[in-house]
Design a protein that fits this description.
heterodimer; A: about 75% helix; B: mainly alpha; 2 domains; flat
């Protein structure tokens, strides 16, 4: 393995290839900051360019855009509460409160460090376990996916900082929204009010509306300049020793969760980051600190989505099965160059395979190095008063959403979701579980239907297959634990109510 | 910035305000149920397109009722931050103006008008500053989206 990795390094460290790696991660980072303009846009725009490159350089370039955008996505989340990429939605939950406290530089640095460590763990997993993990992932059939997604939805209710009931109902609303469009099995249109909805609601409009526009509506009228003092000395932005120590375990756990979800075909960085956040919250001894800029809640999902971004290349390169749309484009680029990804890729094209993996290693170092000096630039953005900044953000959202599919309806829907999100928050409903339900819903339906079809409507299949049974057990434990803690907190709340205000924070 | 701190305890003044979250959810669930009644449900082994929507709709109605009950029992509080009507109206107008202009008139006029409209969401803006600001943002947007990113959008309409 070490020999092969060194072979890969020798490929990447050629000046020309290194240049493409740098160009890829830099572009990815910039694209990731822009809300709505995602890695997919950038990769599809660059796809024709790869005709003129050799296959290794083209994959290195496109892959760099992908994991670079994971870094960039966090930046807009922290500074503006705009998730630049779907996987940075949970970064908003902890990063934005930190920025409002004037600790944006700190949050950005913590994110960069967590992302870097997460990516490195992901790369290590790819180097050591690509082949065994690919075969393990093949064992995941429809029942396993159904259970995995069901656990994800239970976890969705744990993301919330308010009532679990409200959070779970939001996840259901998300699933319902995910059903708009043509039914995956029969092709029948469901809930298609106008023709423009035939392709379903776009994730970009949903996320931009719920998180971006609703925040703008809430803050646009404010007059006061931002109270952010810019603290940019190294001492202010570097985490101190105690904070560093409190980051180690969440980053490790996040990266592990991310590595797992990344390696499964069909689940990507977005789900991985949600899961890592929910897990951190669940095991935390101080869950009430979440949502207010709690460090583990910031670094675990960041480590997770970056780790997943790396390991999602395992199914792509070793099985030829793309995990998401970006991976499908990368496979497309390989096929355009006359290379068919699949189990024989490692044997037939070792230089390509290991070159690409070594480029992850080099690319992440480049990302960390270009990120730290940029923190100062990003934080200065915050010293601009909000009333001067928000029209430009409105514009970013409009153009970003519109350019995604050239669809007017998408932009109108973004506005609808923005208003819905604004009203929802007034009634203590949180947008994050809704988004998770939207992402997981179609997978749940498809795999549940397939399971029932394959096993003749027999529910026992969920507990007779070993992997699925393990997942059922985990899910049941999670549910029991949640209900238990909900009862405890309810009792405590009732007690509190007699003494002071009320139990729920908004 | 964020005025969540302005929340006050005791939403018990108005029963309607407490009942609205649950009611809206129940209504949403019922609407889904009604629409999905047109799709065939199939059987458990051969699920049709209507099966899962009905399951989700029923679950949603149940959740809505649960929330209704717990809200009416008054263990929760709502916050009385006033609705920012001005921001709501002008931000919405900005997005709608963008939508109506971007295809017939092109990206640049759409950007300019949308930025100008959204600037009105804040009462501080004067006419001259709106024009200068919108022009600057439009120029920046042109360089970002058209020159740097090369997005395939019409710059000026026919």
């Amino acid at each position: 393995m070490i020999d092969q990795f060194i072979l890969g390094l020798s490929v990447v460290l050629q000046p020309e290839v290194l240049m493409y790696a740098f160009f890829g991660v830099f572009l990815g980072q910039v694209i990731g900051v822009l809300p709505g303009v995602g890695a997919i846009t950038a990769i599809s725009l660059l796809l024709p360019v790869t005709f003129y490159l050799d296959p290794t350089s083209s994959v290195i370039l496109l892959a760099g855009i992908y994991y670079g955008s994971q870094y960039g996505g966090a930046i807009a989340s922290i500074l503006l509460n705009l998730p630049g990429t779907p996987s940075s939605v949970v970064t908003c939950l902890e990063g934005y409160p930190l920025a409002r406290d004037g600790r944006a530089g700190f949050a950005l640095l913590v994110t960069a460090l967590s992302s870097f460590v997460g990516s490195m763990i992901g790369v290590a997993v790819v180097v050591m376990a690509a082949i065994p993990m690919a075969t393990f992932a093949l064992k995941f059939g429809a029942p396993e996916y159904t259970m995995l997604v069901a656990i994800g939805l239970v976890a969705a209710s744990l993301i919330s900082s308010g009532s679990h009931l409200r959070a779970f109902s939001m996840a259901l609303v998300g699933i319902a929204l995910g059903m708009v469009g043509s039914d995956a099995s029969t092709g029948q249109y469901r809930f298609v009010a106008t023709d423009a909805l035939a392709d379903g609601i776009s994730l970009v409009s949903l996320a931009m509306g719920l998180f971006g526009l609703s925040e703008i509506i809430r803050n646009a009228a404010s007059h006061e300049p931002r109270k952010t003092q810019i603290k940019l000395t190294l001492r202010d932005i570097f985490p101190n020793r105690a904070e560093l120590r409190s980051m180690v375990k969440p980053v490790g756990r996040g990266a592990t969760i991310g590595a797992f979800f990344g390696a499964l075909p069909g689940t990507g960085a977005a789900i991985a980051s949600f899961m890592a956040y929910a897990f951190e919250r669940r095991i935390s001894r101080t869950p009430e600190k979440f949502g207010k800029g709690h460090l583990p809640g910031l670094c675990a999902p960041e480590a997770s989505n970056n780790s997943a971004a790396q390991t999602s290349f395992i199914p792509t390169l070793t099985l030829g099965v793309p995990g998401d749309a970006v991976m499908a484009l990368i496979i497309g680029a390989l096929i355009l160059n006359g290379i068919v990804p699949g189990p024989r890729l490692i044997i037939d094209e070792p230089e390509l395979f290991w070159g690409v993996i070594a480029s992850f290693f080099v690319g992440n170092i480049i990302l960390l190095v270009i990120n730290i000096p940029l923190i100062g630039v990003w934080v200065r953005l915050l010293s601009i008063p909000y009333y001067r900044l928000y029209p430009a953000i409105v514009l970013l959202i409009c153009v970003g959403v519109y350019s995604h599919r050239s669809s007017i309806t998408d932009v109108v829907l973004t506005l609808v979701f923005g208003i819905v999100g604004y009203v929802m928050r007034r009634y203590r409903f949180e947008p994050a579980p809704l988004l998770l339900g939207f992402v997981l819903g179609p997978m749940l339906e498809e795999n549940f239907r397939r399971t029932m079809l394959l096993y003749g409507g027999d529910f026992s299949v969920f507990v007779t297959r070993p992997i699925s049974a393990t997942l059922v057990f985990c899910g049941a434990a999670l549910l029991a634990f949640t209900i238990g803690s909900a009862i405890v907190s309810h009792r405590k709340a009732l007690k509190d109510k007699n003494t002071q205000g009320g139990p729920y924070s908004v | 910035m964020n005025t969540l701190e302005g929340e006050k305890p005791g939403g018990d003044r108005n029963v309607w305000r407490q009942a609205i979250s649950g009611t809206v959810l129940v209504g949403f669930g019922l609407a889904i149920l009604m629409i999905s009644w047109n799709y065939s449900a199939g059987s458990l082994t051969q699920m049709g397109p209507g099966f899962m929507p009905r399951v989700i709709a029923v679950a949603l109605v149940a959740m809505g009722l649960g929330i209704l009950v717990s809200d009416l029992r008054g263990t929760a509080q709502s916050y009385d931050e006033p609705i920012h009507w001005r921001a709501l109206i002008f931000v919405s107008a900005a997005v709608l103006i963008f939508v109506t202009l971007v295809e017939p008139a092109g990206l640049v006029p759409a950007m300019f008008c949308a930025v100008a409209a959204s600037k009105l969401a804040n009462s501080r803006a004067g006419l001259l500053s709106i024009v200068i600001y919108s022009a600057a943002v439009t120029l920046a947007g042109y360089f970002l989206f058209i020159v740097a990113l090369g997005l395939p959008l019409t710059v000026f309409g026919r």
